[in-house]
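To fix ideas, we reproduce below a protein record of this kind.
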Amino acid sequence: MKKFLIGAVISALGFSLVTVGAAPANAAGSTGQSCAQEGIVRKISGVTYTCTRTDGTLKWGEGRKLSGSLTVVCGATEAWCGAMTSAFEKRTGVKTSFVRLSSGETTARLEAFKSNPEFGVWHGGPVDGFGVARIKGLIESYASPSRNMIPKNYKDADGYWTGVYVGALGFCSNTDVLKKLGVSVPTSWAALLDSKLKGQVSTAHPATSGTAFTSLWTNVTRLGEKDALAYHSALHKNVLYYTKSGVGPVAIVGRGEAAVGLVFSHDCVFGAEQGYPLKVSFPSEGTGYEIGGVALIKGAKNPDAAKAYVDFTLSTEAQNLGVGVGAYQILTNPYSRKDSRMVKLSKLKIVDYDFDKAAAAKTALTAKFDADIINRSQVKS
């Protein structure tokens, strides 16, 4: 079913992938020829080019003759990761696969294999994790010619990561379960501490999950570290158990095993589309958000393919694939398609979330969470 869904998305978008910005006949093998849409990746006469804006005009950039294979470590949903890697393989001919890991798992895996990297690109997941990877020397700067399209606040100034989507942290509630408990849909952080919700809150662990760390850092931002840890210690009494992945609570809450999940709102929206009695709400005291990133792994074994993949992820053709597989994040490419199911950040109270500070604090802060609340070794898959 998963392969069918991915294939259907690619087939449905096939016309735009093949024809939008297609190279004129005389452009084959020639850097500098005109192209029609910034960021488009095309294979022309066996050479892969990216449409780049140079001196105000659109031209095919320096070509890369790609070959071999590429493995992407991916932090979004399986369907989204599959759609992206399959489309890139179709576009370039590079055999492309992915391994789905949460943010903390990705950093640990990259560090374990630092001398012999198994991945070429990290794609998806909150960029606080990418910041940790930068500090540890696990990713390297790559100034993709396509990143000029991406707004300044959605990319690292030094080129270590570039944002591909944005998501808002929210509460995902099973309205049937809440009704049985006699509890209203929560609209504040304080509401999650209600004693009626004992064992009824589902969340991931901030050491393994970028989503859960976003929750923790959001509360650090609004309360300060000491009070944020005190809040999560109080919340711990209501937690069913901690999952490894940030999207995990959607299914747990959807099945009625818990009443409320701490997730990015777009994941809850997709869960509701699957028939679960789910409703999204946001905390009135303020919520955090993620920038889902893409980065080049340091020492990538197929660097040309990895760079071409990064270029591709920033294009409208890649970013537009998400909606077709139920991924309703806000897209960073300003020319990408909008969808009514995407959250409107302007309608939410957003905390002043500092991704650099979050990255710098993450290792020590999650260690305190381990020591004071619950160790990451106790999470469930």
